[in-house]
Amino acid sequence: MHVTLDQARALDAFARTGTFQAAAKELHKVHTAVLYALKQLEAQTGLELFDRRGYRTKLTPSGEQVLSRARKLLDAERELVATCAELKSGWEPVLKVVVDAIFPITPVLEVVRKLKQQKAPTRVLISVDSLSAVEQRFEAEQATVMVTVLPPTLPDLTTQALPRLKARLVVHRSHALAKREKVSTNDLADQVMLTVRGSDPRLQLATRALDQQSTVHLPDFHSKKAAILAGLGFGWLPEWLIADELSRGTLVALALKEGASHAFTPILATRGALGPAGRELVDLVTRQ
């Protein structure tokens, strides 16, 4: 059986307009052409699609079911036409981005607003993960852009360093550690260390030896910040996330002998040639 798009259009037009004549007018065809297309459809399906017994011809139950499938064919055609138009315009149909949770998400989200303003057809899919899981998700999702704090290991990537991000080792001002002028990693060993999915030796954090003693692993930096604000323990947080709390004194940066701050160099990695949406994203991220 070979159902054509012309037959699907004729059936859809008949169902919406109610008569063969009106359907022909909507499709800019002669009346006989629409009748022929629908008779051929009945012959090919082997079904009685029209009830012609009354004053006005209407669809049979079989005709209603064939109509629903015919409309799916027409929907698929419209999607194909739209996709082809998008490709001709140069815009990527989809832009997949994976970002490390320590990186501020604002410049990444800004590209969504800009593309909306430009009425760009590109769908932007953003995923957030941490450390080595960033590259794993980048590969699994076959994403185009990645922002990571660990050196990428995948081949054939174009990379560039982004401005350094500073993280501070902090506690709530009511925490016992906040009252000490200096602390050592030995002092920290008796306290609760809060982490986001552990750490990675490549980060070279001053507290890396304490990772195995951490008692609380949190899913993201916002929940980690909430836990520290609740006085549950200490941990590293990016400065951009806690600037207000540090200035108000709600959070206190620990004076750790082994190093109380750490600077990360995020890396922007892209795969393949970028379209307009990808280039817009790279421009926003590198200017942040």
What does this structure look like?
The protein is an alpha/beta fold and 288 residues long. The protein folds into 3 domains: 5-89, Orthogonal Bundle (Arc Repressor Mutant, subunit A); 94-163 and 265-286, Periplasmic binding protein-like II (D-Maltodextrin-Binding Protein, domain 2, 3-Layer(aba) Sandwich), CATH 3.40.190; 165-263, D-Maltodextrin-Binding Protein, domain 2 (3-Layer(aba) Sandwich). Helix content is 42%, strand content 20%. The chain contains 10 helices and 13 strands. It has helices spanning 5-17, 20-27, 31-45, 61-89, 106-117, 132-140, 185-188, 221-229, 239-248, 276-286, and strands spanning 50-51, 58-59, 94-100, 123-129, 145-148, 157-161, 165-172, 194-196, 216-218, 235-238, 251-253, 261-264, 267-271. A 5-stranded mixed β-sheet has the order 4-3-5-13-6. Strands 7, 10, 11 and 12 form a 4-stranded antiparallel β-sheet that branches. It is elongated. The mean pLDDT is 87.
